[in-house]
Amino acid sequence: MPAIPHLLPFLLSPFAMVYGGVVRLRNLLYDKEVFAVYEAPIPVICVGNLSVGGTGKTPQVEYLARLLQPRKIAILSRGYKRTTKGFVLADAKATATTLGDEPFQYTQSLPGVIVAVCEKRKVGIQRLLELFPDLEVILLDDAFQHRAVKASRYLLLTDYNRLFTQDYLLPVGRLREPRTGAYRAHAVVVTKCPEVVTQERQAQIRRHIQRYTSQETPVFFSQIVYGAAVPVGPVKTLGKRLILVTGIANARPLVQHLSQSGYELVRHFEWADHAAVTRERVEEVVAYYQTLQDPQVSILMTQKDAVKWQAPELETLWHELPVFYLPITNTFAAQEPSFDETMSGWVLPSGSDFNS
Fold it and tell me: Which of 3, 56, 121, 145 falls between 20 and 30 A from 194, CA-CA?
């Protein structure tokens, strides 16, 4: 019986082969334009990956949106696990429930950027262009496999700790499509890198990635940077003992950062990626906090989790407690041309005509 886990990839491999065949056929039909493909009249940058979750798309989209301002920018997402359907434009009444946690986070982090959600990206793009004729750039969040829309440029993300070059198709591995799907990428970002990645290691990773892309496709290396904790409740100073709450794909880098920064992790409520924040879950965390009766304990979470905790029906449960979130952003290893220069070259100067 203990040997079964080792046999699991072998037992699942026929399913991966069937899945891979279907995906390859689908990609071929889009490549040959057997299936209709829509192209927008303005620059559209797609940020996505080949694997299921956890590559750092949210901070990457935010980084791009800040970089490309002051152009008029919209972010279009599917709105995963939202309660609404169809096209929804973020407004003052929007919540994580109506938009999805990540799109709602964009509304809070990027006040000058238009945010919308729509399952059908073509419909979403067309509605955005109708509502905002002066729109200059659209960022497609997690749409690498959405072949019904052809973006102007594709930015492919891959986790340093689980490169797509070393991964396998579902259900054996975590790949949504074969590694060869990387051929659509105009640039690749290796995310979540350690603080130091030697030039030799970078060159090795580039060689592996460029087996599946063109040799001219740039490969960049980024590192997560954690900001200062932001208070959500009335207490403004983060304690040294933490109750950590996460609903993300991979919390290990965050746990490691907190440990290295001198914090003691009292308990970790680790929920699934995009997990719903229910009244029962908040009450469980609050009840545990109250049993400790320790003024040095704070409740810390990611920003993606915090936006769900701020729902009006939940806020009354914790609004007197020391609740914080930890913002993150990216920094890029130096190379020529730089990531910023490359991305800026993907779009036109503000006010230019894409069709001229």
Answer: 145
Q: Are 323 and 315 in contact (CB under 8 A)?
A: no
Neighbouring C-alpha atoms within 13 Å toward the C-beta of 276: 8
Q: Is residue 65 within 8 Å of residue 137, measured between CB atoms? A: no
pTM for this prediction: 0.91
**Architecture of the domain whose range is 230-326:** 3-Layer(aba) Sandwich (3.40)
DSSP tally for the chain: helices H, then strands E? 11, 14
- Report the run of H or E that residue 117 belongs to, with start and end: strand 114-117
**Per-residue pLDDT at 124:** 98
Q: What's the rounded Cα separation, in Å, for the pair 44 and 32?
A: 21
Instruction: Provide CB contacts within 8 A for 26, sequence distance 6+.
Output: 147
DSSP β-bridge partners for residue 76: 116, 140
Domain with CATH 3.40.50.2300 in the chain: 230-326
Give me the helices (H) in 132-198, please.
none
Rounded Cα gap, residues 145 and 67, in angstroms: 25
Three-state DSSP class for residue 167: coil
Look-up of token digits 């993606």: 304
Q: Give the model's confidence band at 55: pLDDT under 50 very low, under 70 low, under 90 confident, else very high.
A: confident
Q: Which of 140, 178, 154 is nearest to 51 (CA)?
A: 178
Q: Look at residues 160, 147, 159, 240 and name the one whose alpha carbon lies nearest to residue 196.
A: 160
Under CATH, what is the fold of the domain 44-225+332-345?
Rossmann fold (3.40.50)
pLDDT bracket for residue 84 (50, 70, 90):
very high
List, by residue range, all CATH 3.40.50.300 domains of the chain: 44-225+332-345
